[in-house]
Amino acid sequence: MKIKTLLIANRGEIACRIARTARASGITPVGVHSQADANALHVREIGKSVCIGAGPASESYLKIDAVIAAARSVGADAIHPGYGFLAENADFARAVEAAGMIFMGPTPETLERFGDKASAKDAAVAAGIPVVSGAQGARSNPQEIAQEVRKMGLPVLLKAVGGGGGRGQRLVTVEATLVEDIEGALREAKSTFGSEGLLLERFLPEARHVEVQIAGDGKGHVLHLFERDCTLQRRHQKVIEEAPAWGLPRALLDEIAHDAVRLGETLNYRGLGTVEFLVAGDEYFFLEVNPRIQVEHPVTEAITGLDLVALHLRIAEGAGLGLVQEDLRINGHAVEARLYAEDPAMQFAPSTGTLTTLSLPGGLRIDSGVEEGDAVTPYYDPMIAKLIVHAPDRETALARLATALDHIAVEGVETNRAFLTALARNPEFGQMQVHTRWIDGRLDALTQPAPLTRPERWKAAAAILFVATSRRDADVDPWSNR
């Protein structure tokens, strides 16, 4: 079926990015927006957009009925959910298909399988893929969980079965806080994900996070688009991503990719997906599956030369993958950094306000959902832009990323720019001597203000002298400079 009109059930940079490929493919994109997003960049870029509710996501972007009604009102043939919001919601996928439209994602059954961490882990075990050892199945009884944790020995990771994207995880390291940690994890699982079930797993203290991009036609044909390394994380949230995974043996990475493909084949996977693993030494373990397009997909596009949204559209129209594994090659190295409106000095709290200045550098790919003059509201993820650098090698890519970060100017909100710059130039990261908790152990050093350069010191001294002189000259007026 040829898609003529595509409703994009998302906002921000991913809505803009999907719309651009849709137009290039001869498809008319239509957006949706909340009242808070009425003048947002994705609304302006897409051109036609339907208001689906109030500012809070629960009253707009997460309202299945409102999204379906919007799609019907514009005669959409298909709906692309992007990432986040309803992207992994099996009920939404069913509603889209029941309305006679194409859901651009896996089947509802696949979403249910991978939406539950215990079920996803069972699927990996059934496919013969290594998993992190731990108690079998999900647990919700606090006493039973405590008993199993003591049996396993600390440290143990408690993971909400409905969690994802790094959320819903709690590390138990000492017996004294065991009961408190269990009760807190159960409360978070219930309030955030609607399920109290917890997985109990052995904690891998110095692992790397490697994920494999897969694509499937829904008929048993699945291929991989190589791997990404997402080891640089702060409290389980990805900060800088890159492709390929530098410093790991290609034979090991090929084996991981082969297992990711096998897992997709067992479920006749449809669309784009990411199979995530932890790598410790020469061992690797299945982590989870994100059955959607990823935030970090541009680094895969950079090293393969493919447009992943175009590939997804082709699959959705029933035209298959259009390529085989042997067609794919890795070209160079790509790195992506996420620029956020957040304040590192305030534990990375979101920083809201109007972007009175927003100047982003040229010479690289930038995916952004805001422009100068736009507002960062408290309702949604405060991402300003993704900076994607593609170079012949990793060293050059990191150097170009650091230079690009130097040339960013943002006023009106606080940002993590200096934090990203410190990471890009960090020698340990440069040699990939890092693991998933590396940032958390060095956060103070990474967020300290950078020392002033010699010209900056002279400017600061001149400013102080000017103010002091002005105050002295104005002593005759007791109300001056107060």
Descriptors:
482 residues, alpha+beta, Rossmann fold, Dna Ligase, domain 1, D-amino Acid Aminotransferase, Chain A, domain 1, 4 domains, eight-stranded antiparallel sheet, five-stranded parallel sheet, globular, disordered C terminus
Task: Describe the overall structure.
The protein is α+β, with helices and mostly antiparallel strands and 482 residues long. It folds into four domains: 5-104, Rossmann fold (3-Layer(aba) Sandwich), CATH 3.40.50; 133-202, Dna Ligase, domain 1 (2-Layer Sandwich); 208-447, D-amino Acid Aminotransferase, Chain A, domain 1 (2-Layer Sandwich); 452-482. Helix content is 35%, strand content 24%. It has helices spanning 12-24, 41-46, 64-73, 90-98, 108-115, 117-126, 142-152, 178-193, 250-266, 297-304, 308-316, 394-406, 417-424, 427-430, 443-447, 454-473, and strands spanning 5-8, 28-33, 49-51, 78-80, 102-103, 156-160, 169-172, 198-202, 208-217, 222-234, 237-243, 270-280, 283-290, 333-340, 342-343, 349-350, 353-354, 357-359, 365-368, 375-376, 383-391, 409-411. The protein has an eight-stranded antiparallel beta sheet with strand order 13-12-9-10-11-14-21-19, sandwiched between helices. The chain has a five-stranded parallel beta sheet with strand order 3-2-1-4-5, sandwiched between helices. Strands 7-6-8 form a three-stranded antiparallel beta sheet, covered by helices on one side. Helix 12 (394-406) runs antiparallel to helix 13 (417-424). It is globular, with a radius of gyration of 24 Å.
